[in-house]
Structure formats: C-alpha cells, structure tokens
Amino acid sequence: MPAASCVEDASLSHLMPVRDACAILAFVNSQTLTLPDGQVVELIVSGDEPNLLVYHHGTPAAGRTPSSLLAAAQSHGFKVVEIVRPGYGASTRQPGRSVADVVRLVCAAADALGHERFVTVGWSGGGPHALATAALAPERCVAALSLAGIAPFDAAGLDFLDGMGQDNIDEFGAALAGANELQEYLTAAAAGLRDVTGADLVAALGSLLPDVDRVHLSGQAGEELAEQLRFSVANGIWGWFDDDIAFTTPWGFDVANAHNAEIWQGSADLMVPFAHGQWLASHVSNARVELMNGEGHLSLAESAFSAVVQRFSEVLAR
Question: Which CATH class, in words, describes the domain spanning 11-317?
Fold first, then answer.
C-alpha cells in the first residue's frame, strides 16, 4: 500500500453541543473535520504548542485524552490531537474499515492543523493505528509509540487470546463468531458502561485487571477511564464493533515497515498479554523496546509517556 497522501479541501468546524457525549467533552476543544467525500472525523485538540502529537485512543476509550499524556506532551512542546475513530463520538461510521484506513484521517487532521510532520502515540487498541501511521505515512510521521498495543490476529507464532482475561476472550470470541454475535455481546457490555464511574471500574472490568492496574484506577486515572468509556458508548456500539472487526481481519499494512517505533508492554497485562509486545518487538523493524516486568495495561503509561515524548521531541527537531 502506498504512503498516505494529504487530503485537500477538508474543513474544520467546532463541534456543536447536539449529542449526549458533548457534555463529557466540555473541557476540551472538540472540532469536526469534514473530508471532501463528506466523511466527518471528530478531533479533540489540546494545547497550542508548536509541534503536533497525534493520539490514537484505546478500544473503547475515546473522548478524554489521558492527562498524563497531555502533561508530558505540553512540557515538551507538543499540542495533542486525538483522532476519534469512525463510529465513535461525532465521527462518521465506516463499516468494514481496516486499521490502515485511519492514516487518511491522520493526514487530513495534520493538514487542517497546519503541520507537515508529527509524532504519534497509540494506547491499547490505538497501538496498531499508531504503527499504521508510521508505516504508511513515513515522510510525515517521524516517530510512533505502541503502548500496550495488540499484535495482528493472524501473527505467526502468536496465540492471540492466550493470557487475556475472560472478558476479552469472550469479546474476541464473539467477533470471530460473526456480526450478530458481536453486536449482541457489545450491546450488553455497553449497557453496563453508559453510567459507569471511577468507583465502579474494578467490578466493571472484572477479569481484565491485575492488582497493579486496580491500584492505578483508585485515583484520577479511574475517573478519566470512566469518562472515556461513557463517551465511547454514548452514541452506540459501532466504533467499538468496527475496531474489533478491524483487529481480527487483515490490517492493511506490514508492521515491519513502522519506522522509528517504540514498543512498550507490561508483563502483568490481562487486556493485551505480554506475548503481544514480545511479538511486536521481534517484528517491528529496529524498534526501541521496553518490556516492563510487573506493569499492567494501565499502570504502564506512568512510566512511558514522559520518557517517550521527550525522545520524540528530539527526533522531530532533527
């Protein structure tokens, strides 16, 4: 697949408060970008620093950009734009999208914000999208981080489900069973997340939390994740649904081509098992690798963001 090209004549507008999820976004500069074909992508822009960091959210964790990432980014001269993937928030649904399809949206957002070059970070389900950006827009994306990101479903030598908590095994099992089964599973799961609070999360996430992540959720991080989950299901399940389908079908690019990438993974992760990080570490060409003993899916960010963003600022300055 050729590298992504710029999207011309896209238009930005501020998001008007016409949907339930907007109340959750009152603290951010949320905008919509309309592409020439009519597709709309929601952008959550934080800061006015001179450089650009593109954030790919988790699954389902759109909405509030993590404050730990914002603090690290702004201290090193980056504004952050979160790409709200199709089907989440105000972004037009794109049934059958692949992971690679996000790169068109990233380039359009960078163009609209006036940036030729940028760096990217993807957490969890955002990890593959960050790697896609690095692989397919190498002339623009100068560095990428996959933080607790999944590996391809058909990765040779990897048992994709091995080591996941039961909730994720059930979810991906439904995705593999077919569209009807996945819709039924996610509809039931979303019902329990529409009003979730930080105090509810340990019970809500059940089998997916090692002790280190349970501790992590006891503070501000728990409230932030609860906001992300509420936002992600406020308008339905379809962003989440299409993410799961995209993860379990061909991604549309070769991870080996993701240049200047970093792979971070925690050994205690029950959402995306350690073996996924190990596989990516051995298949992403020349990647910088941090496989962290004892870290979970959520706790890992505290170690990663500050160090990685500082390095990314140095790469962008070259």
Answer: alpha beta
Q: What are the residues whose beta carbons fall under 8 Å from the beta carbon of 60, sequence distance 6 or more? A: 88, 125, 193, 228, 229, 232, 233, 239, 240, 243
Per-domain boundaries in the chain: 11-317
d(CA 318, CA 315): 6
What's the average pLDDT block by block, 10 residues per block, for the chain (318 residues)? 48 48 50 96 96 98 96 96 98 98 98 98 98 98 98 97 98 98 98 95 94 93 96 97 98 98 98 98 98 97 93 94
Residues in Cβ contact with 114 at an 8 Å cutoff, skipping those fewer than 6 apart? none
Read off the pTM.
0.93
Do residues 241 and 175 lie in contact, with contact meaning Cβ atoms separated by under 8 Å?
Answer: no
